[in-house]
């Protein structure tokens, strides 16, 4: 099975948890772009209705094109269930997210949700966060270089902070900010690192999602594995 097939294999368990009348947080990235049409299909076939709150402009556009009702996060008081992908998941169900650059909005919506479900293929399972994927950090454009220097001085001093560039142009988030992608070293304490980063002036949010996932649904060649908090 290729990665797309592994991702698709996780959808049934997630779709079963979407019920009529729910407010659903809908994430970002390649997995969710495959999932959104399946959600729209379920709504039509089961004759149910939901309200979507999306973590990116792109996801919102796809959902609206498929006829789903989408509202702004400020129009709801809570979210019943949030569904998203992840770039890495460790053995404690902690995550790195933000490969698509929507980490701040993802964190807002995931924190509002009564239940947060993550869909991944088994290549995203790691021994420690930062093992295979850089840690995204959303930073203000005004002082991004100063922030990157402070980050690189942390701890052992061997962290590398790289401003994300796409097609030779600095990547801009939906919030109008830059992303710094951090190369981390093994055994770095994710909790301490997050606390250091979040208190730097100019940092909006980090791609560490710690102690927030309620369930991880993993697609693997051996079948779907469901990991509960």
UniProtKB/TrEMBL annotation:
Substrate binds at residues 28-31, 84-87, 97-100, 124. Pathway: Carbohydrate degradation; pentose phosphate pathway; D-ribose 5-phosphate from D-ribulose 5-phosphate (non-oxidative stage): step 1/1. InterPro entries: NagB/RpiA_transferase-like, Ribose5P_isomerase_typA_subgr, Ribose5P_isomerase_type_A. Keywords: Isomerase. Its EC number is 5.3.1.6. GO terms for biological process: D-ribose metabolic process; pentose-phosphate shunt, non-oxidative branch. The active site is at 106 (proton acceptor). Belongs to the ribose 5-phosphate isomerase family. Homodimer. This is Ribose-5-phosphate isomerase A. It comes from Staphylococcus equorum. The gene is rpiA.
């Amino acid at each position: 099975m290729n990665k797309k097939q592994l991702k698709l294999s996780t959808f049934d368990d997630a779709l079963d948890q979407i019920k009529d009348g729910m407010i659903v947080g809908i994430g970002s990235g390649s997995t969710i772009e495959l999932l959104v049409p399946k959600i729209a299909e379920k709504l039509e076939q089961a004759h149910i209705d939901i309200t979507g709150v999306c973590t990116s402009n792109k996801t919102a556009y796809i959902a609206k094109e498929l006829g789903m009702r989408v509202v702004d996060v400020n129009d709801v008081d809570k979210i019943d269930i949030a569904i998203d992908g992840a770039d890495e998941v460790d053995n404690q169900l902690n995550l790195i997210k933000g490969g698509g650059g929507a980490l701040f909005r993802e964190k807002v919506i995931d924190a509002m949700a009564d239940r947060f479900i993550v869909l991944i293929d088994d290549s995203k399972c790691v021994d420690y966060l930062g093992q295979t994927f850089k840690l995204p950090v959303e930073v203000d454009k005004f002082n991004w270089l100063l922030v990157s220097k402070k980050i690189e001085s942390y701890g052992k001093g061997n962290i590398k902070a790289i401003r994300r560039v796409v097609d030779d142009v600095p990547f801009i988030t939906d919030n109008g900010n830059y992303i710094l992608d951090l190369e981390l070293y093994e055994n770095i304490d994710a909790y301490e690192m997050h606390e250091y980063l979040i208190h730097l002036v100019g940092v909006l949010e980090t791609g560490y999602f710690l102690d927030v996932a309620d369930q991880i649904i993993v697609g693997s060649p051996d079948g779907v594995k469901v990991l509960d908090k």
